[in-house]
Backbone:
């Protein structure tokens, strides 16, 4: 996969867009890169993210993709947390029905709970659409029930992950990790 492009000078973020990277490339580019090796937070955040991901995968069985954003996906030396969205295949997303598992997932997507439990993680759990053949999207009745809302939610998060804090007036890029 191509590397993450250079950060834009005035935002320290990647240019707008979604950049595919492997899990190993994320670690190399955003944790172990020479320009970030003096960070006092990145290694710890990476370890916390790995633990968080393992917990989410234990409950779902699998995660299809992860969108990483925020200051962790920037040139900021010491980000304070990791912002991410787990994208879960539709058939897997709906499979979690045990009340304890649902409560655990709610906790894992609650920033305050995560921080209280030693993970500086701000995570969202999103379903991917059940419709996998793009040719079905324009055919009336061919798209899976509920997929219209799923596509709207994914579009919303795509837009959110590309926004900078107020006052910066710029858009930024984020990373997509296929698992």
Residues:
């Amino acid at each position: 996969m191509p590397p993450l492009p250079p950060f834009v000078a005035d935002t320290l973020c990647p240019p707008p867009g979604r950049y595919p990277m492997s899990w190993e490339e994320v670690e190399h580019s955003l944790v172990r890169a020479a320009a970030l090796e003096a960070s006092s937070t990145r290694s710890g955040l990476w370890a916390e993210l790995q633990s968080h991901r393992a917990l989410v995968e234990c409950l779902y069985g699998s995660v299809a993709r992860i969108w990483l954003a925020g200051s962790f996906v920037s040139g900021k030396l010491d980000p304070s947390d990791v912002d991410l969205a787990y994208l879960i295949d539709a058939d897997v997303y709906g499979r979690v029905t045990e009340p304890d598992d649902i409560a655990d997932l709610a906790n894992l997507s609650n920033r305050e709970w995560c921080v209280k439990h030693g993970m500086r993680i701000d995570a969202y759990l999103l379903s991917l659409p059940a419709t996998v053949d793009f040719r079905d999207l324009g055919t009336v009745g061919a798209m899976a029930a509920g997929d219209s809302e799923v596509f709207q939610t994914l579009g919303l998060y795509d837009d959110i992950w590309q926004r900078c804090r107020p006052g910066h007036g710029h858009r930024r890029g984020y990373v997509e990790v296929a698992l």
